Amino acid sequence: MNFDVSEQQAKIIKVAREFGEKEIAPKADEYNQEGRFPLEIYRNLGRAGLLGITIPTEWGGAGMNHVTLMKVVEELGYHCLVLSAVVGMNSCLTGLQLLHYGSNEQKEKYLRPLVRGDVLISIAVTEPQGGSNVRAATTKATPNSKGYAINGVKRWISWGRSSDAVLVLARLGDADQDPRFTTFIVDKGTPGLTITSMPNMLTRQLDEVSEVVFDNCQVSEACRIGDEGGGLRVALSGLEGNRGAFAARTCGGIKACLDESVKFARERIVGGTPIGKNQMIQNMIADMATNLEAAKYLTYHLAWLKDTGVLRARKESSMAKLFSTDAFMKAATDAVQIHGAQGCVENSIVARLFRDAKAHQIMEGTSEIQRILIAESALGYSP
Questions:
Q1: For residue 301, how many C-alpha atoms fall within 13 Å in the half-sphere facing its CB?
Q2: Cα separation of 4 and 368, whole Å?
Q3: Which element (helix H / strand E) includes 377?
Q4: 335 Cβ partners below 8 Å, 6+ apart?
Q5: DSSP secondary structure string, 96-130?
Q6: Span 74-85, mean pLDDT?
Q7: Can you tell me the distance from the alpha carbon of 119 to that of 124, in angstroms, rounded to the nearest whole number?
Q8: Are 261 and 125 contacting, i.e. CB atoms less than 8 angstroms apart?
Q9: So what's the pLDDT on residue 176?
Q10: Which tens digits make up the pLDDT trace of 219-239?
Q11: Could you say which of 62, 73, 100, 124 has the lowest number of CB atoms within 10 Å?
Q12: What's the average model confidence in pLDDT over 190-204?
């Protein structure tokens, strides 16, 4: 295995590092306190060439590999988990769905502007009763003379308020008996589409978690992504790579916990001695440092597999997501403990990391779901 990057790839990683230091770090406290998605920084990510790392150059992307993407996401995740999430989504999930299944007209209308940062697209799959079980989705698309009428509710959808369009997974025909899932892209402002923010979330208010309601929302055939009945294939395309990007940004979060803890442990004096001299504090920091390296290995191993042409890496993507997010939660918990009362202040960096860490154990398939997938693979119950 080789996780090295070329000179050109190293340059874009450096761009990400400098972008995080200059564009994100000085403003992170401000937009986190306001609880808003920093749309202006998102636009600048596009201008910097960071929103389409794995998208081919012919569609405006950087045309680079997954290892490079993971390193970019990790750099940005150190400063902001939300903005690094968008970078991963645009390159691995939203972008790849449009790239592999969208028509040329859809790619011109959505993919190229997505890479530039001119548009933001939400993915609406999760439903109130469905959770991680995508196949339990009941949102229905009924064919008619004008195309399709979509009815249903999606919940826990990121960036709903700021998005320009929504990718939605729906069943054709009877929601209980017809398993033909189909994916559509629906522009904001389409009659029958309502997006409502879900306030007072424990974590990541700037993620703009929303409820998306389709009430006889009429769309044309031009809004369908891929074939009728091919929606699951569309919705799940790029999922493994995106779980890798998910893990990469949590590696950035673990490193932030480690750096904040080391800095505080060196500076905090109790009884005339830095608390970093305390063995219990050292144990916490040692675990952070070790788990960070282990999480990075699992993440970059997955990226390497994707770059070598492995089509399915379900087990490896679940392992990377599970280990990194659980390690992030432990690192954030210990970081707050090391900081004591100062770690409990709402606007402290480690308090923000703690909230983000808990969200990451739940999003994109809970830790429990990942354990089921890993166990099924080990037992031979799934490919």
A1: 16
A2: 33
A3: helix 367-379
A4: 257, 258, 260, 261, 288, 343, 350, 353, 354
A5: HHHHHHS-HHHIIIIIHHHHHTS--EEEE---TTT
A6: 96
A7: 16
A8: no
A9: 63
A10: 999 999 999 999 988 988 778
A11: 100
A12: 82
User: How far, in Å, CA of 339 to CA of 335, rounded?
Assistant: 6
Which band of pLDDT confidence, cut at 50, 70 and 90, is reported for residue 377? very high
Q: Quick one: tokens of 275?
A: 């608390």
Residue indicated by tokens 């090295």: 4
Amino acid symbol at 134: V
- The DSSP call for residue 20 is I
Using alpha carbons only, give the angle 73, 131, 103 rounded to the nearest 5 degrees: 60
154 by DSSP, 3-state: which? Answer: strand
Which residues on neighbouring strands pair with residue 349, listed in sequence order?
none
C-beta of residue 320 within 8 angstroms of C-beta of residue 254: no
**Rounded Cα gap, residues 245 and 49, in angstroms:** 17
Residue range 364-376: mean pLDDT, rounded: 93
How far is it, in rounded angstroms, from Cα 170 to Cα 232?
9
Residue with tokens 């306001």: 34
Q: Which two tokens stand for residue 311?
A: 């089509």
Q: What confidence score (pLDDT) does residue 32 get?
A: 83
**CA 344 distance to own-chain centroid:** 26
- Tell me if 302 sits within 8 A of 247, measured CB to CB: yes
Distance of alpha carbon 122 from alpha carbon 111, whole angstroms? 13
CA distance 80 to 23: 11
Cβ–Cβ under 8 Å, residues 225 and 184: yes
- Cβ atoms of 176 and 136 closer than 8 Å: no
Contacts (Cβ under 8 Å, ≥6 apart) of 85? 158, 207, 245, 246, 249
Q: Tell me the chain's radius of gyration from C-alpha atoms.
A: 21
372: left (phi over 0), alpha (psi -120 to 50) or beta: alpha
- Cβ–Cβ contacts within 10 Å for residue 313, how many? 20
Beta bridge partners of 168: 124, 184
Structure tokens at 163: 């998005």
Residues in CB range of 321: below 8 A, 6 or more apart = 243, 246, 247, 364, 365, 370
Predicted local confidence at residue 240, as pLDDT? 83
Q: Which residues are catalytic?
A: 364
Euclidean distance between CA atoms 41 and 246, whole angstroms: 20
